[in-house]
Amino acid sequence: MRPSAFRSALALPVLLCAVGATAGAGQLARLNVGSFAMQADTTQPKVGVAFHVIFTIHVAQNVTALDDVILPPFDPLEILGDEQHVTSGANGTDYREAVTVEAHQPGRIAIAAARLDAIDARDGKPKQFLSTTPDGKDTLVLTVTGGAPAAHVSVPHVLGTVLSLIGGLIVVGSMAWLVLASRRIYVPAPPAVEAPIEQTPQATPAAETIVAVRERLRERPDRATAVWARARLWAGVGAPQGATLSDVLTRPQTREPHLRAALIAAERAAFTHDADLPPAIGAFVVALGDL
Amino acid sequence: MSVGPGALVAALEATIVGQRDTVRGLMLAAIADGHLLLEGPPGLAKTLACRCLAAALDGAFKRIQFTPDLLPSDVIGTRIFDQHESAFTTVLGPIFANVVLADEINRAPAKVQSALLEAMQERQVTIGLESHALPDPFLVMATMNPLDADGTYALPLAQMDRFLLKIDVDYPTAQEEATILERFAMRDTRPLHGIASLEDLQTWRARARAVHVEEPIKRYIVDIVVATREAPGAFREYVDRGASPRATLAIVNLARARAVLEGRDFVVPDDVRAVAPDALRHRIGFNYRLQTQNVDPEAVVRAFVDGVPAP
Q: pTM (2 decimals)?
C-alpha cells in the first residue's frame, strides 16, 4: 500500500506525510532525498511550440531506477514525449525526467507538484516528497501566450536576411548543378519516390512488453498482477502516472482499436469486483493477444 | 418490463435541448438518492428538466416558488380547524411529492430554508404532534439565481452541504438555441410520460448501492477531499474551509451512480474525477480574495481534483 496523498504546505525536503503503514512500506525504496526540483524551459511558452517540464531528483543512495516517481497531470497541455535519465555515482544518484509538452491555447496553466514515495532513510518511515519550483513553490505556473510574436523589423536585419537568402540560394543552386551534371555523366536517374504520408505517431507498447504482461497474467491471474499489467500498458503508451483511462484514450497515440480494447480491458481487470476478476483478466489476456 | 437509466436520459434529452450537465446531475441525484442544487440564470430549462424527470418517472411533481414572505407551513403543511368536524385536520404541504422543485431557494428566509433542508435530511416532517414520512423516491431540486442577489438570503455552507451535488447551469450554444426555437416555438414539445417507473428507479438505486469500489479508488476519493483542506498550491490562498467528510460520501455515491449510468458494476477513476467537482463546488468555503482577484471558483475546484493523481 502506498502512503496516502495528503499534502502539507511545507516544501521539500521537509517531511510531507508519514504513514504508519508498515505492511506496504517494504515495497518502497529506502532513500535519502536531497533535492526534488521541477522547472520548465520557459514560464511563458507559446501556443504550438513544444517545451520541456523537467523533474530532477538527487538521492544519496546508489540506485538504478526510481520507480515511485509520480508525475502530475499536465492538462490541458499535450504530452509529446517523456525521457528519463538515471546517473549513479559515488555521490549518489541523479534522476532527470524531461516531459515534452505543447500548449494549444493561451492562458494560465498550473502544474501540480510531482511526487516521490519512499522510505526516508533518516528515520525509516514511509513518506511522500513533493517537487518544488525554483522559487520554492510546489505548483509550476505557466502563462501560455498566443502565436510567435512578430519579429522586430529593422533595416540591417532585413538586409541581413535578404543577403542570407541570396547566399543560400547560390549555394543550393551550385550544389544542384553539380549533382545534375554528375548524374548526366555517371548516374542513371533514380525512380520517382512518392512523398511519405504523414501518420499520427503510434506508441504501441513493445512486443516483448506485451508478451511479458500476458505471460505474467496467465501465471498469476490476480488483482495485483492486473494492476501491475495496467501500469505497464499505461507506461507503454507513454501515459503519465496519475492519468485516467479517458486521458489515455484521448491521446492520438491510442487510436488503434485493438490497443483501445486492451486499455479498456486493463481498466476493468484493475477495478472490477472479485467475482468478475477471472473473466476480466481473461478478457485482458485476449485483448493483449490481439495487439 | 424494467428499463435501464439510459431510457430515462434519452427521454429527458428528447425534451431538453443541450444542458447535458443538468440532465446528468438530475440522473446522478435520482440514482444516488440525493438532492440537487442548480445555480444559473433564469430561462435555462431548470424547471422544465425537473418537470420532465417527474413525468418520465410517472411521479408526483410539485413546484414551490420561494419568496421572502414564505412560511415553513407553506412548505411542509399545517393543521387547520375544520368547523364541520369541530377538530383539527392536517393539510400536507407541497413538499409531499416525488420530485420537488424549490425555485429560488435563496429568496426565502432562513427558517423556511431550514424547514426544507431538515425535511430533505430526515425524509419526514412533523406537523403538530404527527410525523409524516415523505414519499419514496423523494428528490429535491433547488435553484439559485446568481444574477439577481438583491433581497436574497444566502444559503450557509452547512446547509448547502445537505445537497448531494451542485450543477452550474450555463447558456446554450447558438446551435442549441436554434434547436430550442425549432422544438418549442415551431412545435408543441411536451415532456414524455411513463418512460420508467418509480420501481425502476428503486432498482437502479439498489444496483448503485451494490457497485464495487476498489481500495485505491477509495483512497483516491479521500485524497481529493483532503486536498481541499490541506493541499498546498497556487489556489490555496482562496480557500478558507475545505470540504467536509460528507463530501467524501457524496463523491463515492455519485461515482457509483455514474457507474450505473455507464452500465458498469464497478467504479473507475474516471467516475471519481467526473463527479468530484459536482460534489465539491458548494462544499468549499472560498474567501474574499477569490472575488477581489476575479478568480473562477470552478478553476480552483478543478485544480484540487486534477492535483491528485488517479490510481
A: 0.65
Task: Give chain B's length.
Answer: 311
CATH 1.10.8.80 matches B210-305: yes
DSSP secondary structure of A135-159: TS-SSEEEEEBSSPPPPPP-HHHHH
Q: How far is the C-alpha of B290 from the C-alpha of B283, rounded, in Å? A: 15
For residue range B105-156, what is the model confidence (pLDDT) as tens digits?
888 888 888 888 888 888 999 888 889 999 989 999 998 877 566 677 878 8
A7 to B222: CB separation less than 8 angstroms, yes or no: no
Q: What is the domain partition of chain B in residue ranges?
A: 5-199, 210-305
Q: What's the Rg (C-alpha) of chain A? A: 25
Prediction ipTM score? 0.83
Of B216, B227, B265, the CB nearest to A273: B265
Please state whether the peptide bond connecting residue A221 to the residue before it is cis, i.e. omega within 30 degrees of 0.
no
Cα separation, B308 vs B311, whole angstroms: 9
pLDDT digits (tens, 9 = 90+) for B162-202: 899 999 988 888 888 888 777 776 676 677 788 889 999 99
CB B144 within 8 A of CB B105: yes
| Amino acid in the structure at residue A280 | A
How is residue A207 written as a grid cell? 512486443
Residue B192 touches partner A, C-beta closer than 8 Å:
no
Where are chain A's structural domains? Answer: 22-144, 207-289
